[in-house]
Amino acid sequence: MSFKKQYLKSHPICKVTFRMPKEAVDGASTVHIVGDFNDWNTNATPMKSLKTGDYMVIIDLNTGREYQYRYLLDGTVWINDWQADKYIPSYYGNVENSVIIL
Question: What is the pLDDT of residue 93?
Answer without folding.
Answer: 75
